[in-house]
Records
---
Amino acid sequence: MTHLHDLTAAEAARQIRSRQISPVDLVEALLTRIERSQPMLKAFVTVDYEGARAAARAAEATVATGGELGPLHGVPFAAKDIYDAAGLPTTAGYRPLEGIPARSDSFTVARLKAAGAILVGKSITTQFASSDPSPTVNPWRADRTPAGSSSGSGAGVAARLVPIALGTQTGGSILRPAAYNGVVGLKPTYGRVSRQGIVPLSWSLDHAGPIVRSVEDAALVLAVIAGHDPADPRSLAAEVPDYLPAVRSPLDRPRLGLLVDFLDRSEPLVSAQLQEVAAKASAAGAIVREVRLTSPVDLYLAVHSITMQTEAAAVHAAWIARDRSAYSPRIKASAMLGQVVPAWAYLHAQRLRRRLVAETAALHADVDAFLLPTASNQPPGPETTGDASFQAPWSLLGLPSISLPSGVSDAGLPFATQLVGRHLDEPTLLRAATWLETVLAFDAQPPENW
Amino acid sequence: MTLRFDPTQSVEEVQAALRNAAETAWGADALPEIELSLEIAARALWRVSQEPLEPSDVEP
């Protein structure tokens, strides 16, 4: 029998709809796990016991009375603590923001609630979603980082505390926590999901997206949160396709472009594992061919770095000027130094960014998705949030990317494989990811030693 | 050593120029707070300056 906490979001939604399980029981089971895990894992900053229980009772009543049920009716979720959720503080890991409740829901939280999902709390973020490590612990091994900045979201989904957690990515903060915690992370196309009500780090790089445990769940959540929002000036007006058929009809023979530039930059274990994945995919019918980027990876990273640093400096300029004592060291250094980066450098970086977008789109024309490791390494120690260099290029270009768990090393740490899709082509990306998920058949879980 | 666009400067020269600019902006006492980002920022500035663009090339 599957435990309630092991259910994916899609499974839970189906079983609630068919009255096999109760939303009250599900929420209670997860709240118990959150409470029990918290001293060790520290995945949550705020748990809304009262609100979640009330929402669960209401959800159960709606099922009992035959009311209209949304696609995530009764399914619990967590929101990274830079998303506003009415009545709960949004601290962004910054002490001066503690204890100040948000007045309304962010666009994304509101969409999830409207779809019937139940917010159980706010998951821990690194400060301002930057690179200073958070206190959250990796459930696979306590001496390794859960990554960041969506550290509580990644650890919480992996430890079966929630089936869905919202994350954000400016460099690699959805995909890397998903990778280091052995779960699925989806970063949609830039502008596909509204950033309204989310504390910004870098306007032109910030993305919102889910961390979940299956590609089906990624599609299910994306279907709920995607769409135009006039309150976000970068929100795209493009029509939102139905993402669920994509996961029900995986590609027959996905064409995967193996990005060898990244294999060259991977640790040997990671490179070997990705080549195993590529071999498995080929044996199962994928057309895998090697692709080299037109420009070197370090140019993507330099353009990303200048963009993020200068935009973060502008975001934080007033607060840094007023009082920088509560800022963590890395975000403070970056925001202070970003103020002296010359204007020509930012604009030059944006010109190069446009060139990189065009170059990469040309390489994408003949493949359904790029294939590469999600991270260059397995989770390192907790003094860092890990290496963003394999995720940041796709944040820079705004391309959709997804991370799938693809194995476990002898050290008991997860490996992850990344697919990168074309602009706004999440359906093809999800079809390729569904196909690869089946081929990989990953079913490992972290130990439950808390 | 300056922070102007100059592809002939080394990473070290860019880093020294960036440190000078930071000291001017924030004061010498604040330099330890900035040190964590200095090398990465200097390397990024140096790297993009190795990619000259013509005036009629892409817009930002």
---
Amino acid sequence: MIQHRSHIYGVIGEFESPEQLVHAAAKIREEGYRYYECYTPFPLEGLPEAMGMRRNMVPLITLIGGLVGGLGGFGFQYWVNVISYPMNIAGRPLNSWPAFIPVTFELTILCASLSAVFGMLALNGLPQPHHPIFNAPRFSHASSDRFFVCIQARDKKFHLEATARFLQGLSAHHVSEVQDD
Amino acid sequence: MDDMSENEFMHGRKHDHEEHEDSSRVEDHSEECAPDPTVHEHKLDLAAVRAKLRNHGGKQYWRTLEELSDNPHFEELLHREFPRQASEWDESVDRRDFLKLAAASLAFAGIAGCGNKPEQLIVPYVKQPDGLVLGKPRFYATAMPFGADAIGVLVESHEGRPTHVAGNPDHPSSLGSTDAITQASVLNLYDPDRAQTVTNAGEIRTWQQFLDAAAAAVSRSKTVAGASLRILTGTITSPTLAAQIQSVLKLVPGSKWHQWEPAGSDGPREGARLAFGRYVDTVYRPEKADVILSLDSDFLASGPGHIRYMKEYYRRRKLTSPSDTMNRLYVVEPTPSVTGATADHRLPLRASEVEQFARALAAKLGLGGSGTLEGAAQKWLDAAAADLQKHRGASLVVAGEFQPAEVHAIAHAINASLGNVGTTLNYIDPVEANPVNQLDSFSELCADMDAGKVDTLLIFGSNPVYDAPHNFDFVSKLTALKKSADPNKQERKVGTTIYLSTHFDETAEYCDWHIPESHFLETWGDARAFDGTVSVIQPLIAPLYRTHSAFEVLAAFTDKPGVTAYDAVRDRLKAAGTGDQEKFWRKTLNDGIVANSAYPPISAALKFNPASLPPAKTPSAGQIEFIFRPDSNVYDGRYANNGWLQELARPVTKLVWDNAALVSPKTAENLQLAQRAAARGGEHGQIITNVIDISLSNSQVTAASWIVPGQADGVVVLPLGYGRKNAGFTGSNKGFNAYMVRTSGALWMASAGSDIIKKTGEDYPLACTQYHFQMESRRKILSAGTLEEYRKNPSFAHEGDEQPSKDISLYKEFAYPGYAWGMAIDLNSCNGCNACVIACQSENNIPVVGKDQVMRGREMHWIRIDRYYKVETETGDPGGPDYDALANPETFFQPVPCQQCENAPCEQVCPVGATAHSAEGLNDMVYNRCIGTRYCSNNCPYKVRRFNFLRFQDWETPSLKLIRNPEVTVRSRGVMEKCTYCVQRINNVRIEAEKQNRPIADGEIVTACESACPSEAIVFGNANDKTSRVSKLKAQTRNYAILGELNTRPRTTYQAAVRNPNPELEKA
Amino acid sequence: MSASQPPIDSPEIRRLTPVLAPGHTYSSVTDKISAIVLTRPISLGWLIGFVLAFSVFGVLNIAIGWLITKGVGIWGINIPIGWGFAIVNFVWWIGIGHAGTLISAILFLLNQKWRTSINRFAEAMTLFAVACAGIFPLIHTGRPWYAFWMFPYPSVMGIWPQFRSPLIWDVFAVSTYGTVSLLFWFVGLIPDLATLRDRSTTKLKQIIYGMLALGWRGSARHWHRYQSAYLLLAGLATPLVLSVHTVVSFDFSVAIVPGWHTTIFPPYFVAGAIYSGFAMVITIAIPLRKAYGLEDFITMRHLDNMAKVMLATGLIVAYGYFFEFFMSLYSGNKFDVFLVHQRLHGPYSPFYYALILCNILIPQLLWFQSIRNNVIVLFLMSIVVNVGMWLERFVIVVISLTRDFMPSAWGRYSPTVWDWATFIGTMGMFVMLIFLFVRVLPAISIAEMRELVAETSEEHK
């Protein structure tokens, strides 16, 4: 049953309830593991903290997107009406800035939203149709009613048996290795 | 439904009328446009083609033939096999033919007057005709003969295509202006429904065959006893034509000349004879009159000289300062006319009461006779009489065309007694070549036809089958058979009938020979204007089809049928000329008139005393009086097939595409006639009215009723000219035919008990472009006052003004340093005559949309004339309850083109910038950029924008392509359009000015509406130039902007209307 | 539930009426919801409904085809009434398209748990409504094939859209709204698509859902970023929702036409939009929960809350009407005063009274708990409100245009058969899309339901 390390992605364990997973995640961290990941059917409160995640980049990306959209939007309208093709429309000034606000606003929202979503996907490395974790048996429950943790082989503290035992120690069910490919 | 609308909206080329009722018409066209690839392989294979022709539908084979047109054998084949289509096909104008025509007409019509026969003068453009610059229009002087008048015009010609008619400043009856009918006459030239070849009993014949027939008729009359030639014409003022007729009469024994003009009255002629014992014509000089009284005369808008009279009349109403004086107009009339609607004092009287009024006035002025009117009317008369007397020698009494001889005689007497003769009017020899009592003349003809005294009947300039008094039953006269023993040898009483007309119309159906008549822009000729001036008619284009002029037809009956109208006119005029004949001829052609050929004033001794008149028959009260009037647009029906005139909103009623029996609000009340705005279109389009049966003088007609505020009670007006059966696609089966109930005994007025009017219970939708007549107390739309008010308070037009000040904006205004185009419209000079509307339509390629589309509120006119009554009623609906307020309302007209706002609401909301401001302040419309959101129209407070809801332009009909003004884009479907201040004219002038490196002078640019306007109400120019006419007008205190409070800053402003009522009557 | 039943509308019963019926586990909600898509066979009812909707959608296509062939002249519009059904329907649909994103975004920010089970199909409804709305601005132009000129692209002529025109603002607002709503909806869908991927039995479904799920594996780090992205979207969508109908209202309030030129428009258009939006959600929710037995997830509590939102927004709309009225009279502007007169006594007054009845009077019944809890009545009332809101747009667009500044140019408008065909056609399209949606995607957010399960289970502990 023991195989060569390089073919192993990691060891996966399964939990019944969110609480157990959160508790386990904290323990694994205390144990000194760094490369491990939890898989849950819905976001769990407290899990990020337990895993010691810090704030992510999505908000910043969104902010930048919004600024680009807003400034770009107004700038574009200014350029069109004052520089590129000035026209006397209804005797209104070339730079009728109040009339440019709605479009500016909409562009702000649009760019911000797009960068939020695509930023999130990019940071998550999605779309990624296949991932070694899908090799794990019963992993399909991760999108339904089970909570998984997987300690990855690349963690220098990783040792197949030891890690497996450690997980069982955290009362995980169906502890098993995950084939790499 | 929608397909029907497609059907209606233009007068496309029509072959068989059924086809156009069917809804698949548009598909027809698309398939018609598809090129037929098979044609060329089959080019000479006649059998195959014949087979093909049989299989295809009408349009299809017509088209196919066009493809094959350059094969002479084929043409013969066609004449045998498909006579009708052939003629259409072989005359259809393709590009090559067109260039020929263009070149021909140029050479032909040029002021150089070079040559006479187009065949010899066709010049290819490699040798460019003298003086022609491609793309530059040229203008030629000619004249439109109309009744006892000829209206001098300058016709704009693009590469030989006459496209636009304008007035001839040198011509006495025009002085540079025109009227709606003259403007629209150019469309008649290109009317696709014109007759195109000589036919006999519907079969195509060659011109030679006709010449033979004519010769035969002549020889018959020489040999057979009692076989006489009769000529029936309308009123003729052409010396050449008259001479030609005389020569025919001389050559052909027993021949006679009869005249019948359905809308021309014998009243003035017989009135003159009654007064002076002879026929004389009256020429008025309104310019010299301070006080004018019109006895049911619409002298400003119809009748000989009306354009000039309008000009002169309004010259006396121009105001520059409160100290200026104005003339004063009193009008007595049964139904509101253009003249009456804007008069200072208007007295609605039944037509029959006008004579009583005249008699009473004569009595009042001490000319003998007696008679008084009841209460208010008498007071009115007294005031008018006093006013007339106060202005002896500077007053004028005008009797209406359709009033009986007595009224005219009395008018002559009054003018004489007031010493007006020689000052405000002159008498001249009759302008008509042969003045006769036309009713007698026509009756005589009918009698002779019955008696079988007529062997050959030649008819032109008249359409008797349609417009003869119905008791004459002219059809039976044409078809009646001789009594003969042998039943199987049937012979007609009238041997041969020859009919010359532009269309194959009602009369043509019953005549043997039909000769297609040339349009006046296609032939040489001459005619006398209302004052006797001889005007030369020179063609601008070779006949589009195989048509002939009356002169040529008459020539067929003379001994020298070869003589052309050109030679005749030329020889005749040269004889008249003095000095260098060639020079004289050229000058004449150039001016369009023979210098000082006007008749000199004659002194006509009055042999008449009103007292000697037999007492007038008093119209029995309670009776309904029916009066017949020529229609303001289609006249006696001769213009029924003119889409422009059909779709032109009538000045007072604003009706289009129909005529209706007009009644006063009160009469409507009594007859329980109602009308309401329909859900679709509503006030701006569709009004549902009651249908009535009128059984009058043993005949009956079914008409839609229409309520006209200001019409005399108990009067029903039956406009002539509608209900034509065979006028062409546009004009047939529209409205009702009033001739059906018109008898020789009661040509202009018939009265009967009100029981002869029956409501059928049905309703009929009438297309009316403006139903709501009141201003809803929005004073800043149309501002008007009296001369007194104006003098008291010169800026009365600005009472309660809410116009924001110029510096109200936070932002910097756009500056217009160069030219700032602007327009001033003097409401004091507008009487809604509609000349500007058609001028605009012709200049700017504005499509005709048809009745259905007008009823949906989609007519396309760039300039409209709003009509308001100065009364506030409950509903603002003529059919409403308060008919007393509408008994005689003060009426105002307001032409509304695009206001060219500086802060244009339309521009701000256009998502694609398709409408923007030019550096000269024009509100430009960029058709190519327009995507048709219609937001601009919604946001236009003046609603002057027009939208191509469907493809309103006719892209198929070949002849209609020729009429387009190449300087104006032809708009297609889905595009917004509107008045541009005739930007193409502005640019033409600018280019010239810049070439000569000089500023554009004031009055150099003349918009189409301005040039047409006979009353000079519209003035266009540079508002930056303080010395320009427009600036001066805008500087006046009467100047105001419509809805100024919206701060749209219109470049088009108005001068408030000022009426000049008689203080005496005001007090009353 | 407690054995002793307290009185029906006592506060505790409303507290106890859960947003999720008790006894559900992670797997049970997953099964129940995904089953609708994965295992349930196509029911006859669905088939009939879909076919009907599809044929009405066919009518739309015919109507548009004819329109392109002949021109907008086939409609009842004219001068002066340049805008008719097309714009009325556009505004109506856009309004309906407001509930979804509003529910998802604003209620999410306000942490309203009851939104969970309705937001998914509410968002779907939004998208479909916006799709229907989007048709009209394009086809109502005289030359639809040039409608793209309203978008800023570098053209050879070097000309750009005219950014002062509210129609351009519309283009940006509506397209932004459509895009953001789509993103919001899709982002919410990703975890559920993963669920469907993992639970689908056939290869094809696995591949399709797998593609759509973008390889989602529920990793904690992904969830972390996912949540902040979702939160940000909600935050961005909220002002967007409010802005869209504000901009639509500018189409009118920026123009000078009496009856359009009104400062009250933006707020009361937004309120009206939410009003009609919630009405439409109810119109759809009630049959949906019945047909697929979702009473456990879409409980009376949801209906009750939505009814209350309707009542509230309805009152705002009423206030808007009143104020429009009041300001016209108070301002003394002769044109505005005249317009009020027109609405009350003019040829179109019946529409105005019908509008008052549908939008103000009838909805007052919602004050009563018993009405709000009566599913049938609520359903009917939601339809009445939808009709009322359509009438509101008709009154604003048509009545104002029929009689504006120049009495000489007054006219009237009546729709043609093609106007109706286009309008009803879009309804067919809308219903058809709803039918497709419930068959191929989870109508309720499974992931969020699991969260609810987690919370409720905690409550029960």
---
Amino acid sequence: MSIIIADEPRAFAPPPPEPPAPARHYLNNAYGVWSWLLTVDHKRIGLLYLVSLTFFFTVGGIAAGLVRINLLGHNAEGHILTDDQYNRAFTAHGVVMLFLFLIPSIPAVMGNFFIPMMIGAKDLAFPKLNLASWYVYMAGAMLLVWSVLVGGIDTGWTLYPPYSSRYSHTSVTPGVFGVFITGFSSIMTGLNIMVTIHKMRCPGMTWGRLPLFCWALYATSFIQLLGTPVVAITLVLLMAERVGGVGIFDPAIGGDPVLFQHLFWFYSHPAVYIMIVPGMGVVSEILTCFSRKNIFGYKAVAWSSVGIAVVGFLVWAHHMYVAGISYYSALLFSFLTMLVAVPSAIKVFNWTATLYRGSITFQAPMLFTLAFLVLFTVGGVTGLFLATLGTDIHLHDTYFVVAHFHFVMVGGMVLAYMAALHFWWPKMTGRMYSDFWSRASAVIIFVGFFLTFVPQFVLGYHGMPRRSPNYLAEFQVYNVMSTAGASILGFGYLLPGIYLTLSLFFGKKASANPWSATGLEWQTPSPPTAFNFERMPVVVCGPYEYAIGVDQLGRGLPEPPGPGSADDPASHDGPTGPSGSRNKETEVVG
Amino acid sequence: MSASTHSPVLKHHFDNLEQQHSAERLGMWMFLATEVMFFSGVFVAYAVYRYFFPGEFQFASSQLVLWVAALNTAFLITSSLTMTLAIRSAQLGDRPALLRNLLLTALLGTAFMGFKAYEYATDIGEKFVPGAMFRQELAEAEGPLAGMSHEQAARYEFPDHHHPAPWAQALAKTNAGKQPGDAGYLSPGRVELFLCFYYTMTGIHGVHIVVGIGCILWLVQQAVAGKIPRENYSTVEVVSLYWHLVDMIWLFLMPLLYLAGAGLARH
């Protein structure tokens, strides 16, 4: 591949020859159930997490479906659930999606799988701890799912006492114990990733050459390590209160339930950054690759992840403006909450600048990523409405809040998870999935999502409270729209389940670097061998040298995919496509 | 590091022992950070309530068994010393001394737990436990003092010094002739609140001590099996980091729980 800068043609090193597909890779170097259940290979553990998370995502999704169907009717006549069952359904949706899907999602699946490969290591620093984290996760998750299915939990995912201590006669204790246990798995994963990034980088992989995905997961691990223990002790105190019938949040003996809210949100607000920051890391990887541009402002994007992690610890009380905290602390927390929007905005602006004059192609990972950009921005901006003291009094505990955090958590993190899955699927499985159906699914999910949650902003603004099964008749039209959107969204989620599974059997074999990406993980065969790299890689370049077209080992890149690729008849059509840009003057940016 | 590349203790995914040991140490330090955060939650809660209810906390603290806590503190500080000596022995490759120091540490930890169990038994025997037992015991002590003025109650001698429990006698006398809200009135509920802290904090700390003893016994087993050669001393160091943290947490628990009311006489 040659790039013309000014008038002088410069030829770079040719792309490396396609490595021969290994006869023995990580998927077929051992067979049988025990080769999976006792594996210490980070890639296999990543897949164990992938399968488990898909299962729990389905469980949480079904609970959401029940809630949405129930909300079709504005009073008890149109309901399929009793009010008690409704409480249990939305709580099940909340706890399963948050604790069992969103918090582990990208760190446990993609982090486990790709952090060692991106930094040129053979494995995570503590492989056995990694396996243990999966078992701990499964134990806690099973207990939690059993609790929400058998006895039910009716407190909402926030578990506020005295709802959860004195007045709930449901399975709160085993459920809370389940959450407590999964917390340890989160700590183990975070600790493993953090130590790995510190100690296992290959020669030449300096902090300044670290892919932004690693920076994002580093920041995430920081939150996991320092936040999770606080909620763990809080849940221990809650369980002690339920079991002993008396405890430190018990107002009957002078205890303060608001203290629980402080301790709970001290973790659970930073936890929403555990859920979103890894997604931001994914976006930085995919956006650069599919716009063939260096990231705009590497340092700003990297440090903004750390900035979010740090400032995110100082904003928890914005969930408690109406819980009776003092005006001065509310004012301070409002200010700090606005402050945490700054690093998020830095990221969004840098991504937008990265897209500017890029040679953008629209494969499925890129479509999911662009959807993330739109939805996360809407979610972030509506977050500012809620950070503002005055408007929050009006909007607190309404559907506006529900719509806001679904835009960030689903529109942000779930779409980033889908993007990551589609981006790295060829590397994980060695197979390509259907181009058409993957793009279709991205579009369907985007449309379904918008239709589901935009009406909820309207509902919330007009005052419909969250967590209520009944509502005024005039809200029904918005609820019907929202449920219709949820059905489309559900269909959109089913599609990847089908075509990704089919790709395992019928998909085209993936080349080592199908997206022509620069990261070290693409310098291994697809699927990789057990120890990832045949010999230790030596990094000589930054992570996103798309402008000059070299990977991190300093070698050329293969032809990028999409309309520009050589086997596509449309490739030489327009001056705007990648083939056009290859022949015109190329501006090196960043 | 070609010499150490072939070391039997080097795990396959590390390049050399130096990298392996520094990863292990960093991992343990990060785990300690999570432990500090874990305990910090309950320390914060304690601080809030201590600030709200200083009188009750002082009273309840004065009713705990101070001499057990003092003895236990001595045990734990000594065990930190023996644990550090164990690292030194491992560095020198002195296996008998390593075993001796590890076993001594485990023994001191066990002694701590033994005295802790004795203390719990005493407290529970005195019904100094939040909940129904507490209120019943207090009601028994308040019975004979009903209708007395504060001065009369102060001069009253219970026929049996041990029944109702001394704490109940003291609390009933303090509150006799007073209404909630009066100066010097101690709310029994808030005394229970202190006890909730006492049991959860010492209970969680006790679990950590037991885990620590388990880790030390595992080290003993490893050392006997010859799996802790000189170049692998960092295994001992990593366990010792954990043990020191657990000791250090006790050094915070001791004044918060036992010394907060030490100015008041127990009986």
